[in-house]
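Input.
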Amino acid sequence: MTPHGNAAPAPEAGFEFRLLGPLEVLVDGAPVEVGRSPVRALLACLLLEPNQVVPMDRLVDTLWEEEPPASARTIIQGYVSRLRKMFGKRGPEIITRSPGYLLRVDPERIDAHRARTRISRAHGLEPAERSRLLTEALTLWRGPVLADIAGSRLYRTIAPNLDELHLLALEERIAADLELGRHQQLIAELSTLVERHPLRERLTGQLMLANYRAGHRAEAQDRYHELRHRLSGELGLDPGPELRELYEKLLRDDPGLRNPARHDVPGLGMRRPVPAELPPAPAGFVGRYGELGALDDMLAGHESGSSLITVLTGTAGVGKSALALTWAHRVAEEFPDGQLYASLRGFDSEREPLTPGEALTSMLKTLGVAADAIPVELDDRTALYRSLLAKRKVMVVLDNARDSDQVRPLLPGSAASLVVVTSRRRLDGLVVRAGARVLPLETLPTETAIELLDRAGVPGKSAAEPDAAAELAELCGGLPLALRIAAARLAANPARGVSDLVHELTDERNRLHALDIDDDADTSVRRAFDISYRSLPPVHAETFRLLGLVPGHTFTAHAVAALCGIEPSAAQRRLRALALAHLVAEPEPDRFGMHDLLRAYARELPGEPDADIAALRRLLTHYLGTADHARRFLRPARDDLDFTGEPRPEITGRAQALEWFDSEWPNLVAAVRAANEGGLHCLAWPLVRLQFNYLMVRCPWEDWIRIYTDGLHSARAVDDPAGQVLMAAGLGVAYARSGQLDQALRHYEDSYAVAVTTGNAERLAMTQVNLSSVLFRLHRYDEAKTHCQDALRVYRELGDRYFIAGALNNLAMVEQVNGELEEALAHLREAEALYRDADDLETLAMVLNNCGEVGIELGRLDDGERCHHEALEVALQCGSAMRQAAAYLGLGDAARLRGDVNVARTRWDTALAIFEEEGSPQVTEVRGRLEEITRQAG
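Output.
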């Protein structure tokens, strides 16, 4: 879960999204402007797959009909930035998650998903309720689907499916109304529909049946002949078997057609008992619309002969039993021969798991078998059980199963019955050997979690403190068991505010204790986790405990291998075993994570302090080795640090290096903090330094400042001059690039002061280059030039070509502002050549943009534009969004000078979107340009 600092407003408040017609976004019932067609198409893509990662490649393919531009990904980033701005803090959240974006939103706020949910829920209900639900779903269609982006590829892909869903729902609603005897009222509606869809056989059949029941026998037959002639003439086909059978029944006045169909259940109770063993459904059940819909689909598929077993699986306390029982009660009438239930006690704190033999004995007695007639052998009991259920339509709920072997003898032998199993393990053995379907349960989204707090606790408390309620839901991690306990604590003390409980839970060390019920030892999040943990083999239990030491929220097999001191292949096997037990999750291939409360539980488990420090040191060394290896693909390593000899995952190029940093970034930030707090200062500041090349490409300002502040503390703690110079300098770069120039100057001066004490000429020159850059931006040009020239002289004496380039670039900036344009361009060209030799693409893109700017200022428009185009190409290659934005800015300037205002506006719009996304201070500069051309155009 996303960690909370201060309380945040309830997400998505007042937002509603409409796809079943022109795309609309409503806030508190009022429409808001979404933007141009591409932005609308992007939003529609994300809304059609809520809470799922939509890959960037699919977004690119959807938004561009022909060959997408080279900057397609950057443009999409800009569109995402605009949508985030539109949503603000109250709306849904767009999360960047490899390989694309995920829209975190309650599906019930999207009309298409509300429609699907109601259509799914209608299946199997009584006709009146089915008609009502389907009518609700149909009213959500407001016209042609996505009509406002009708020319897009997305429209051609999605609209036919949603149109077909509308027709299917319409046919189902009409079928329900026919069962209710509403044939007279349906004739006019069906006549219109048949004219609109003349080849749709089911609609024609429904109209035939309505006419027949209304006494219009001849017209019913005419409708059949009209369709038969049309099918033959247009397609060379005959009507299908169902319609032909209906026609034949019409001809012979089949009695079954005269009245609405009834499905009375034969009274079998006199011959055999009809079990009704389901425990009561839990009170206050909320949400789970997607899972309920999946179970409904499973039931529909079961009737057509597909798998009869579904396994609800998930971590302790996620609500598996609650979902199973809630759904089972909803569909109980679909199983007229009864409902069997067995609590298998697979993870019971007090009693041993129920054996298959014990479970069969209980169920055979329920089915009417006398105790002395129950066979002794397990196989004989299973055979009798299956014989009794043959040709009977029974639901079997097997709750809290430990493994597949416990469940397999309890499976009915025929496809007439249906089985729902709940377990903390995945039970893959049932998938392989019995064709079971697995339905994993995740934690509840924030809004649903708040609803559960209200229903299970004191109604209205959440509404009185919405921010605190949202934070309480986050602290409980969306885990239903934790939420119910929190609600119970609020209900036990009505005078207590939600914010009071939030304050108690904020301290992770106290969180699990706070989620206990004092007078009920079994009602406890810790107890639920205890049972899962104690059932693990020792080696897996120790691995789980060590995972509590991981500072970040996710981990790979390589990281766990380092933590445990084992090979990556062994770590992978252990993680898979923990995933099967739902003690870790695998949100994406080969990347694992833990629920926040499970992480807190793991950290409470006792261990050996020295051994734990050694494990953390191994993990940090893994991060050092991989980061050092990866950074060398991004820019040259310009320091003496070298950890490349450490074991690491394979990284062979720039793209893989960036991908590794992107995936591991939150973990690296947390690792630096853990090393600093744990006193491992000799590892902390080097780990910070090894992120510098990545930071220069991606520019996450807040994280940059946070880890360099920690790094500077560690360097000072061990009195390492090199570390102090590099950490202070890194802070200066972060503050300078984010526009906080006074702060940047302070840190650059600190770095320079330490460098002076070391007497190291190269280190001192580096600090002078840094000082020159910020002094230039503070308009202190003479001081900036002096520092540039001093540094350039030292680097030329040392023969350090890479740092010569940096000094030349900064000197050129001063020369440019002083009007010495030819000198500036000459120095920039020399720096360009040196950066090409060094293969430092990020800085090369910066120098090329500077060349373009000076070239345009000299009046050499073609040369300047060429440099900016090349800068854009290089920036795309190395993944630097900031350099891409600068290139678009320069290209817009060139277009403006050529008099092409529309091209200039487009390029500046793109630059603005990127600068906004990156939090750059250059946003103001670009907005000024756009406002100026708008005024001139007006």
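Residues 1-12, 261-271 have pLDDT under 50 and may be disordered.
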